[in-house]
Write a structure and sequence with these properties.
With 191 residues, the protein is mainly alpha-helical. The protein has seven helices and two strands, in the order αααααααββ. Strand 1 and strand 2 form a beta hairpin. The chain is rod-shaped.
Length: 191
């Protein structure tokens, strides 16, 4: 059995390797850009900005780059925090496009990994069965004498049988027969 953390890492790697991660990221950014909540928050921050409301900014004596740098420094932390909350909502909204896409991609990756694991197990089982049959055949061949053929028995084991001799029927047996009388010469019965 595999470790759930390792299994999760394999799934994430598979999602990344398939290129689905980049597509999910693109969809998150599209949703983030279209977020009215985030737009309103940015508007409120800019309108309430100390940097823009300062008398110096109104006098426009500062150059534009310096003004934007100061505004960035003032609003960055608040904006990043709000954006990360909005992204989390996008990712976890149960009826959202992104969360459904994530669920589908992860499910596909899990299914592919499962199918690959099943194929590997089948290949290993087939290889083990072939190796077992090969070993069994080699054992039978090495243990049998020349001309002796292994035959399956009733209990599943193999037994050796000798090849039939020429001129005899395979079912003929000498058991229970008396030896023929001895004859010395041409005339008369043996004594």
């Amino acid at each position: 059995m595999t470790n759930p953390v390792e299994e999760g890492a394999r799934v994430v790697k598979r999602v990344i390797d398939d290129g689905a991660f980049d597509e999910i990221r693109k969809n998150v950014f599209e949703e983030l850009k279209g977020s009215t909540v985030l737009r309103e928050y940015v508007r409120e921050l800019v309108e309430g900005s100390k940097t823009l409301s300062a008398d110096e900014a109104k006098a426009s004596s500062k150059d534009r780059k310096k003004l934007l740098d100061e505004l960035h420094g003032e609003l960055k932390d608040q904006l990043v925090e709000k954006a990360s909350r909005v992204v989390w909502e996008i990712l976890t909204k149960s009826d959202g496009r992104v969360s459904k896409d994530i669920e589908q991609r992860v499910h596909e990756a899990i299914c592919r990994l499962y199918e690959e694991r099943q194929q590997q197990q089948q290949q290993q089982q087939q290889a083990a069965a072939a190796a077992s049959q090969q070993q069994s055949l080699q054992r039978r061949q090495s243990s049998s004498a020349p001309g002796v053929k292994p035959e399956p028995g009733e209990d599943g084991t193999t037994r050796a049988s000798l090849p039939p001799r020429a001129g005899l029927t395979p079912s003929a047996s000498l058991a229970g027969q008396q030896p023929a009388g001895k004859r010395y010469g041409m005339i008369g019965p043996s004594s």
